[in-house]
């Protein structure tokens, strides 16, 4: 990668997150010589693409640097000879997400974008599309790196690594958000904080926390337990019970609330759905407001309102990863990679979320070995669900799908699993060619 | 074991199951030359011991064979030089079981003797006692085989194998009951039916079913799915959904209903608790009736009413296992043994329930390797719970106990786990010296 | 397999061992209703086939049972609809074996039919042929069991299991020979002796020895160490050093002498080669004598001289295995099967030699777990050699072949490995189509 | 480790290597604020300690920095409150090494300081001493890091990690030497070269070589194979055969010559022993010359002649590792660490040599997973030997020692192993208290 002029393809370029990404490339222009950014979207997203693309162009212009922004509906044009393909698309858009949230809630089950049946539905819609994209990459840009942000990020990355020849790394802003959260509690620069992460995407534990290399996990748990923090915009911020956190002895991610506080979270979701709307419905409005803002021809920076959307640190995660690959940095990022024995309690061919050394040849996870029983069982149960979800999504097998949902820890019975599955298949018919 | 005159110690000898066991020894007298059976119980069980001991003596007398029945409250006398120690005791008796059922139900959680928080409570009461018994065996009968029936049988056997030097095999009548259930469906002699079992005690799957060696799993699933069968006296006999069973492609054990049909089972438990009483309360009455029967000085056989109690095939499982060890038979039994890599997806040092060759040197499991993802996750999640349950039970560690209950798939949140745990510790205070 | 009239195909039917096999079927006719035995051989073996086939027919006639012996050069005719295919062919015959022995000896390396470079050469010649046979079986007798005796038996069986869909079990008469050897030392009926076997074909250790179920390993080692026994006709019977055997604490197989006593065995081989000839040369004469005997139209039983050939217990191993499959016996045989985690220190997909339960569905190994370090390293080193040997044999890859020979524990250097390899490829040109 | 004034204890401080180490600390004084270096040696080494200690003091003085050099025969004084303990002692000195080389050669077996029976003997002498040192560290400096250079470095580090509570990292200058060797071939700065290392100490393969992050392994093999290079002062520089290197596809370390070119290396050793003397005898003279140089009161730098001794890059490896720990650098070093699943084909509790991230909490290996069969078998065989060597060395068990030597790939038979073992035990009597 001695070449100087990088081409970046952004699939789902019309996303409201795009300005975050553009800002990231602008900030790193010195170390990351991007020449062309192709923002690609589908016909239905054309309007959004044009709005956000306009903003992107103004941002680059203001920065006075030589990045060319291209807007296109032609995926093959975007991918051809790209050095990096960033995927941030959503099949079915926000409306599909809202359905994903509402179907499980109907049966008193957590209705969430990525966790539980909602994530299953999103995976089923996304898998045929990501496989298509990868066929294009295999043909048109076989040396490109796929940086996947499309959720459920771990599941989608595992699909790519199991079923294609594309070099892929999955990303999520949760781990970096946890680092920032700890830094805030400690009142220090986030750079002084390191966390050993182990787990799956949206089910990752911070097993040890370091300040300037000193292990402060125990100290921090004492002061922290019960604090209202370490959460995300997307997720209700219930405090953790201090004794529970002490018994756990490590940091759960915000999404753990769906597992460790299921009853409370479900009550909250039902209450919200009945009042302000599901998270998807709220986001829909936020997005509309954002696009109104983006239209302003005088706006030429990432507007601060984007933070409300939930994508904080997205640019940090993505652009600094790309830079570490390009510059062969050998620094540590938290990524979604093939397990390959890193966590001895999971199969080799699944994807985990963990600390890895990043260089020009990709992500090299730091070895973990066996994890403690207290986090092992849940990690294994969710991973088994994910493996079946991928198999169902690739083959369109009803029975595999039924098993996937049945064994999900948040689904109370095979009976409910079946009802939810039938609703999902019915309501997403147009997006599920594999089930025909 | 060339010796001819075997000594059997039965810990919990006053149990209503004892006649089943005595019948087993009588039937096998030719191949299993038992001379002395010590029925041992504690002071509180003295009356029952005398009643059931009287019946046992009459049964032996009627059979006209040379077995001597001894009744004792002295555990060391019972164990000294025994060849086999059979454990079938219940710490706290039926009343403790009823409490185990009621505490979780209070929080809308499955309340069951061995599955879920009820099994956790039972394990905490039993662990200190089984460790005491094992110290006696180590001292007084170091070559004895411990045949454990005390529930939760897998957890108790794992405790013994991890924390003592006693040679132990765990038993359960569920697998043999499943074989008889299939034989009934097929209308054939149970000897013609074989099942490959894999899993944990009370969470065991019949992965393949054979009739005269031919694999009939698929055939059987088609005809069977939806049938009201393969259940146990202890467990409500809800039929399985045909599509669910087809998607599973194997035979769940009756206890799987608590996991796969949680909502329905919980409703049923709550309904029963409010009307006829919990299963423990029902059993309490059945037991009282049984002991009334046992008192009859003219009764000298196992009364048929015992079947209602739920212990069918108990004698088959126990006595034929003992005979296979004594006679070095090298036949196949389904037992609870150290995993040691048999199921590649579980740690080496845990106990699994599986097919094993039995000979004079113990139980040698037939290798399994990896299990399918659809049963792997649940098996791993419950095993992690069991490992923490044992650790908590041995050390009396509150935090470990809290994690054990939190990660149990049937417990909805850490909050509920804590409430249940506090109730369990409070209501079982006198039986939990390790928590002091 | 409820059918009554079995068809057996014997590939390499013209072998001098065939009468042993025929005798085995005759003895078991009651329990194993064989109707047709197809003795198949290639054009070059026609004369031998007719001689040994004639004897086979006379043996069956004398026994007065309804087995039909068919002689054929048409492999597809032999295999079509067979229930069992027994492979005992040798590509290149005895002359190729003699070359296999002489090439390594030229470089001061053990020259042996199955162990070391000789076994490598034999594998390279055999692999293309066994794959061809398996294509026929897949097409013409997809339900047949392949019982492989062709050496190197473990390597050939692993080739079949890795590269075809044929149901195969590998056999060897070494383990049963070790049982008979121990029985002889103890002066008891071999049926009273059991051995736990673990390892690879021709590299198998008897880890525990039982008499009537009692572990007599230690006792036996004391009396046995240094005894001149437990060997085979094929292998010089050097006594083991008593202290070495005590330090090993288990029973090596006769072939272990090539590894544990390399220097002495090499000296002996060189001495023999210079005087009576290599073992292959000796066998060549024995075979000629045997065929002279076989021609005798009055001979209608297996002649006792066959024992000298080295195939003792061959019929026991093969026919009793076939009977256990046919009759769903669930008894224990020592076989070559897919590891699948049985020995935790070897890959899943390799073949090991170990105790297994045999029933209508094949061989189910009894779990072993980790083996002691003292036998682990050698087992792993030889297995790595075997894996590369198979890969080289299937692909005809020179570099893989060079690595296979280089890492063999009996080959002193890459330089010698290359010389031996080049000689092997040159002298076996006509049998190695895969290297073209 | 916020403290500013570090104390370093050097066990075996009288070694001729010490100036190399002192130079390393002087060069890094800015980033590594060492205040006290205790050079400790035993009574027999007093003279050397004073000579080399004098030079060390002059070197520090010349550098004009505030490091205090202390000379002591009191190990406890040296260790007390040390931050780092560096071990570079040799039990029995050079004379013992010469015996280690000569004993195997007597039986036509490679006689080498660390590889084969010579390394076994060295391990047996060293193990009791390192365990003693670790008891001191546990008591007097429980937070200290032990940086072990004493050979066989992997075996000694594994002994410490298995049998003590000391935090230890093993080091060797072979991997860094390989990096420098490649840089020389490429004609580039060594900083631009990275190698993925996997294996054991003195048996490590460079599986991939990178220049500026680009994988140049294949390219390099083509140009390199046959080159006379990548060797060490200690080891005869025979060229590799080009075809062998191509078939291997990776970089063997110089010590691999003992395994891959055993015959040639043995011839060379025998020739040298008969002429210039064994390597130990040569080194003995080099050392005497070095100490003559060191005595010169005008010498105040590391003399260039030290390079001949074979310890090139020793200071780079040791001091930069210490600095990475102290400064929490999170950079990559090649070290000897607990495997813990990093290489999936070796047990968890053994020590491997591999790339690891170094920070204040120690060495965190980058995950490897399974290694190719071509390097797996030899790695496993040597590791099994090492495990038995450690067990024998700790317990002084003759039988375990006999097995260790027997299974070493360079020892041709149990018979030779026994002779060598008996010679080793006899000639090292005074250093082997554990065998009494």
UniProtKB/TrEMBL annotation, chains A, B, C, D:
Q: Name one GO molecular function term.
A: metal ion binding
Free-text cofactor note: Binds 1 NAD(+) per subunit.
The enzyme's first-digit EC class, named in words, is: hydrolase
Keyword Manganese (UniProt):
yes
Residues recorded as binding Mn(2+), renumbered to this chain, are 172, 202
Matching CDD domains, A to Z? GH4_P_beta_glucosidase
> What PROSITE patterns does this protein's entry cite?
GLYCOSYL_HYDROL_F4 (PS01324)
Alphabetically list the UniProt keywords. Answer: Carbohydrate metabolism, Cobalt, Glycosidase, Hydrolase, Iron, Manganese, Metal-binding, NAD, Nickel
Q: Which family does it belong to?
A: Belongs to the glycosyl hydrolase 4 family.
Q: What is this protein called?
A: 6-phospho-beta-glucosidase
Species of origin reads Thermoanaerobacter pseudethanolicus (strain ATCC 33223 / 39E)
């Amino acid at each position: 990668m001695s070449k100087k002029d990088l081409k970046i393809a952004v699939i789902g370029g019309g996303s409201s997150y795009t300005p975050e990404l553009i800002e990231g490339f602008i900030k790193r222009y010195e170390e990351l010589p991007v020449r062309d950014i192709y923002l690609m979207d589908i016909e239905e997203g054309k309007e959004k693409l044009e709005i956000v693309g306009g903003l992107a162009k103004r941002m680059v212009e203001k920065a006075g640097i030589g990045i060319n922004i291209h807007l296109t509906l032609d995926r093959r044009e975007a991918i051809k000879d790209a050095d990096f393909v960033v995927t941030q698309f959503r099949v079915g858009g926000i409306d599909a997400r809202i359905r994903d949230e509402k179907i499980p809630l109907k049966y008193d089950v957590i209705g969430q974008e990525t966790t539980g049946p909602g994530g299953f539905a999103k995976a089923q819609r996304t898998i045929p599309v990501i496989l298509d994209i990868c066929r294009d990459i295999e043909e048109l840009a076989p040396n490109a790196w796929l940086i996947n942000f499309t959720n459920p990020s771990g599941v989608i990355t595992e699909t790519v690594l199991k079923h294609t020849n594309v070099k892929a790394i999955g990303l999520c802003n949760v781990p970096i958000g946890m680092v920032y959260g700890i830094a805030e509690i400690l009142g220090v620069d986030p750079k002084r904080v390191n966390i050993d992460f182990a787990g799956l995407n949206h089910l990752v534990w911070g097993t040890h926390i370091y300040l300037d290399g000193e292990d402060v996990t125990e100290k921090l748990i004492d002061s922290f337990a019960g604090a209202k923090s370490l959460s995300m915009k997307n997720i209700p911020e219930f405090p953790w019970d201090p004794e529970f956190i002490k018994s756990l002895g490590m940091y759960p991610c915000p999404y753990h609330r769906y597992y460790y506080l299921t009853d409370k979270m479900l009550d909250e979701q039902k209450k919200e759905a009945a009042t302000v709307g599901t998270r998807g419905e709220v986001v829909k409005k936020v997005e509309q407001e954002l696009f109104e803002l983006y239209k302003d021809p005088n706006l030429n920076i990432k507007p601060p309102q984007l933070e409300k959307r939930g994508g904080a640190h997205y640019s940090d995660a993505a652009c600094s990863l790309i830079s570490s690959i390009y510059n062969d940095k050998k620094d540590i990022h938290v990524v979604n990679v093939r397990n390959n024995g890193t966590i001895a309690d999971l199969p080799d061919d699944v994807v985990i979320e963990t600390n890895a050394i990043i260089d020009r040849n990709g992500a090299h996870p730091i070895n973990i070995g066996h994890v403690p029983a207290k986090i092992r069982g849940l990690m294994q149960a969710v991973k088994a669900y994910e493996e079946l979800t991928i198999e169902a999504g690739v083959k369109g097998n009803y029975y595999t799908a039924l098993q996937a949902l049945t064994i999900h820890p948040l689904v109370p019975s095979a009976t409910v699993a079946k009802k939810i599955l039938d609703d999902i298949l019915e309501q997403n018919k147009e997006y599920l060619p594999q089930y025909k």
